[in-house]
Specification:
By secondary structure, this protein is α+β, with helices and mostly antiparallel strands. The chain has a domain at 128-228: TonB (TolA/TonB C-terminal domain), CATH 3.30.2420.10. It has helices spanning 15-35, 116-127, 143-153, 158-163, 192-203, and strands at residues 129-130, 167-175, 181-188, 211-213, 216-228. Strands 1, 2, 3, 4 and 5 form a five-stranded mixed β-sheet that branches. The termini are far apart.
């Protein structure tokens, strides 16, 4: 059965209108509340005003008492001890005074005085290393004997053989005034094991004929290449 409603009995037909009216009224009330101004009435003070004097309290300035350090202790008293010696002691030793006057025949030893500059010059000449001199150092038997000595003394390192390392190591050294080799060092490296072996061989070199400059033996720098080749 279909339900039928009469339009005049519908309670929701004025719902939208009532909502709009309510919104308008509330908005109007809010605007009226914001626009309303209240006037301040004249204020009256009842009673009398009493002024009260405030005493300024003076705060005393206090300082912390300094604690003085205790006085140092008095120095220890020195007690003098007098040893009384009898006067009847005889002294066997007699004071001898030598004559210090010199004559024409008196020999005087004079130690030569070496100045600091001369000493530095001598040290520089001793430490100076020459690269080219009038007579170069010479290995016993010449250059061919030096090559033969190096070839016979070299022991190829096992680790270098296993890794297949080859090359030419340049070693620099100084031939001293006495002909012995000193200050050997690597100037061109190939492998640490080969460098170590090259230094060992150079340090084992026998005595050379020292180099000379102006007829005097001097220190001369020298270098040799040592070749390591696998066969």
């Amino acid at each position: 059965m279909q339900v039928k409603k009469y339009p005049y009995c519908d309670l929701n037909r004025y719902r939208g209108l009532l909502i709009e009216v309510g919104l308008i009224l509330s908005l109007g009330i809010c605007l009226l509340a914001f626009e309303t101004k209240t006037t301040v009435k004249k204020s009256e003070i009842t009673g009398s005003i009493v002024t009260q004097d405030i005493d300024n309290e003076i705060i005393p300035i206090t300082r912390q008492e300094q604690v003085k350090p205790p006085p140092p202790p008095p120095p220890p008293r020195v007690v003098e001890v007098l040893n009384i010696v009898s006067d009847d002691i005889e002294i066997d030793e007699e004071l001898e005074i030598e004559d210090t006057e010199a004559d024409d025949q008196t020999a005087i030893d004079i130690t030569p005085v070496v100045t600091a500059y001369e000493q530095e010059q001598e040290e520089e000449e001793e430490e100076q290393i020459f690269y080219i001199v009038e007579e170069m150092p010479e290995f016993p038997g010449g250059e061919l004997a030096l090559r033969k000595f190096l070839a016979n003394s070299i022991k190829y390192p096992v680790i270098a053989q296993e890794n297949g390392v080859e090359g030419k190591v340049y070693v620099s050294f100084v031939v001293g005034k006495d002909g012995y080799v000193t200050n050997a060092r690597i100037i061109r490296s190939v492998d640490p094991s080969l460098d170590k072996e090259a230094l060992r061989v150079v340090n084992s070199l026998p005595q050379w004929s020292p180099g000379k400059q102006r007829g005097q033996p001097v220190r001369v720098a020298f270098s040799v290449p040592i070749t390591f080749v696998l066969q």
